[in-house]
Amino acid sequence: MNTELVENEVGAPLGAPVYELSRVSKTYARNLVVALEGVNLTLRKGSFTSVIGSSGCGKSTLLKIMAGLIPPSQGRVVLQGKPVTGPRRDIGMMFQQATLFPWKTAVENIVLPIEIRDGKAAAKAAMEKAYELLDIVGLKGFENVYPNELSGGMAQRASICRMLITEPAVLLLDEPFSALDELSRDMMNMELQRICTEQDATAFLVTHSIQEAVILSDEIVVMKPRPGRVAEVVKVDLPRPRTLEMMTTPEFGEIVEYIRGQLDKGEDM
Amino acid sequence: MTDVSNAPSPADNAEDTVWVQEVAFIDSVPRWIAMTFVFLVFIGTWQFVTSFGLVSPIILPTPAETLKDMIFVGQNLLTGGYMLTALWITILEVIYGFALAIAIGFTLGVLVGETAFGEKAVMPYLVAIDTMPKVAFAPLFVAWLGFGIESKVALAAFIATFPIVVGTAAGLHAADENARMLFKTMGASRMQTLIKMKLPTGLPQIFTGLKIGAVGVMAGAITGEFLGGGKGFGELIRVAASQLNTPRVFSLILYLSLVGLALYLLVQFAQRKIVFWHKERVGSYDG
Lengths: 269, 287
Fold this sequence. Notes:
Chain A has helices at residues 2-8, 59-66, 106-110, 112-118, 120-125, 127-136, 152-164, 182-199, 210-216, 250-267, and strands at residues 17-28, 33-44, 48-52, 74-79, 82-83, 91-94, 170-174, 203-207, 219-224, 229-235. By secondary structure, chain A is of the alpha/beta class.
């Protein structure tokens, strides 16, 4: 269904807006640092957006605002038509570390968000779904294994399941695979693409890696520091599904070079 | 591509590069043999010192004498003699003292580790009291609670409480930033975060506190008996020492230390059962 829609416009899928930010600014009262200034951003249904920028460009502040962990100083933050005023069930989040709890088995870790929000009985009822999700990420057979028996990549797969169990409307990914070795990272990125496509997920990735951003994204938000702001939104019109082989194509290299140039400009200041 | 077939390489006829890696002698000796060796050296020195009259028998009895007395005390304990009654009193003091220390220590630990008020206002006092020589409070406990078991329980609990407070407070701070943020994004309440995340994460530290407390509770009970009389095992030791019955003192201390050891092992056993995940990785898969 995707392909036809993609054909219509210039690359990006034509989903309805899911997450909308307008004029979002954040000034930390403590030291009057302007972390974000006038950020406008729209995530459409089923799209994959990455944000990239040097440290201090406000990307983690942006992510925290989008996760409902901190309030913006100005601007509107609206997810599925409702302003985000705190953590929400329809926001899924994933961190650099898998952060699985060692006293819980893989499935128990996965249903934890349900356990926290709806109690033990609901968590038990969600077990079935957790099994399905584990199957999707290729962890069938590891349902009742404790996290210390999982490798780094497997642990991150399990944490993908934990993020998906509440069926969030948006996935916020905070450098999710940066702690993995490069081979696993490439593989996990392809897995992530597959899962996002299967679930028709709307994803927002914060990353340091230009390659990672280009291979995964429909749109890349290039941010610049002092104050943190959006410098440019780069559309990536490589065909889907993306493969690792695409990373060697000239088109891929061009986009990477272009973004690198944009980032370097910011560094001159 | 490099050819990795079985073509013979020029070195095939040459001698293998096999050499013997040096291993330290002690690495090849089993632990029990090493321990027995130290034990024999200890007993040997002891025997040497006593049999050549280098030390008065009142100060240091021979190993044989000590062993004889240990058998005597052991028989008394096994046949339910007066020593068993005394030992039982001390064991009760230890159990009550430890239970009290756990209850108070854990509560204070959560207060100090979880609330900003506790950390700011209560912790400094706890640190101040912890630096005091707690044994010095023994006469106070006797004055307040009398010569019975209560004053010993109080001193034992007093000494064992602090490591448990510190262990619990440290444990509650053990959770990393990611885990905290994860719980926030899941919309967890403060109570849920405490019970489902911070406490389980901190269990290893809490158990470390319990182990230190288990050692302290024993010391507290015996000190209490030394300074406050009563009918416990400490009193037996004090009486034997005042009669210059050194072999008896030695054997009583040995049996007493068995009780302490049992308590420590009990805590360790509980730790292994409850904090089952906190151990070296036995094996790991690679994905």
